[in-house]
Write a structure and sequence with these properties.
alpha+beta, five-stranded antiparallel beta sheet, four-stranded antiparallel beta sheet, binds zinc ion
Length: 473
Amino acid sequence: MFSCRIIMSEDTTSPKEHVEQDPTKVEEAINSSEEAAPGAANLDQKSEEPKRSRFERRTTALSDVLRTIVRDAYLERFQGDPESLPEIDLNIHFKVGGRENWDVNFNPDLKEQLVVQLEDAEAGKGVYEAGRVFCFYCNNSLCDCAKPPDLRSVFHSYDSMGKPVWCDFPQLLVEVKHPEVDKIYEKGSQAISHILYGKQLKQDQLSSYGKSSKTYSLLGQIVFGYIGLKIPNPAGGKPSLEKAACTVQVAETRESSGGFSLKLNVIMGGLSGQEIKEHLSNRSLEWLKRAVGIAERDLKEIAIEAGIARKAQDSAQFNEQMKQVPMVLKSLAASINRGERQQKRRTQHVEQRRGNKNRPIHKAVEDVSKAAASDFYYDSEKKSMVCISQERAHIFNKDGQHITTFKLSGGELDKRKKAGRWGSVPAADAEALKHKITNFKKKPVINKKNFSGLSDLSIALDKATNAGDNEEA
Ligand SMILES: [Zn+2]
């Protein structure tokens, strides 16, 4: 059952759009509509005994016409089960005036008015779950089909029954003939991205299984990968670094209040919205967090404007706003590509700096105190002593003073050994060196208070020379 509230406004100032109609024809239409609803008509005949006024009879006829119009508009749009639609409060606006021969003028047109309100009524409210899509087959977002089965899967499309289809990321790239598909297997290559729009994602979906539903109306998505995700080890210990593909969707949905909303949904490996948020807070995914943040802000602005237009049933303005959604997707794709590139460069720099810069001296000394004789080498080129500890090389001069520490990338130690640059140190020498290093006394630090006059120059010079020593040679 629908309850309809009809709002009449007696405004005779806009006669332009009025269509001339013969009042007798209108009456005929109302009378014939009684045939369209035989059930109601039968009831009327029985209850006609106490003699109903002309007004009451026409009201009944009007209800029947409205009933069929609303029903047909609903079925045409959704083809769903009308039983699932609860009673809704409909507003229908029209203008009518005596000066215009009582012509009725719907503005916006009646169908448009109905569709907007039926969409809202049909949409499941507050069912949006970040990290998951809506499954129209199971009619919720909590079933297993609503999330990707693993980290490498992305959203492919909805099937005819409204069930989400997930597929391996490279498979989708092959399907769309992505020009860079082979790069996905290259080690350390850039993430590859691809945009798909709602029309493609819903092309197989039937109207009776949510194609037009605003419960979760997919407007488009970007799929990209692979990115590195640190997955915690359930047994404790170091997290593992996993390759993950990501789906970022823009979906129109309804808040629990029923309000129009646009969501940017980041979907990865069935992780919850909270878990994804935590991953994005990770420094290595800073670029993605920033890109997503910008897109979210842009979508919010569109949603506000579109929401206002929708409330005013101004479909032209609404469409104008929604036309910007593909632009948000495009700039998100661009900032994902750019951001990842920048981050990669930044990370390399940080790693280089970290590797080259001195670790605190006490750390180096601590490592040396634990080192075995076989961990010591003599650098024939730099005439320095090397102590290897956990893939780090601590460099000291012959007096045991720490010069620098840097990270050894895989194979570098062997390379230097093979090249004859780093030679092993006899155990006794190693012990002696160890003693020197652990007992090394730095030159007394000069207090700022004493820092005056001529000594300034010598101290500054001293400092400069020390700083030079500390640079990795
Ligand atoms: Zn399902």
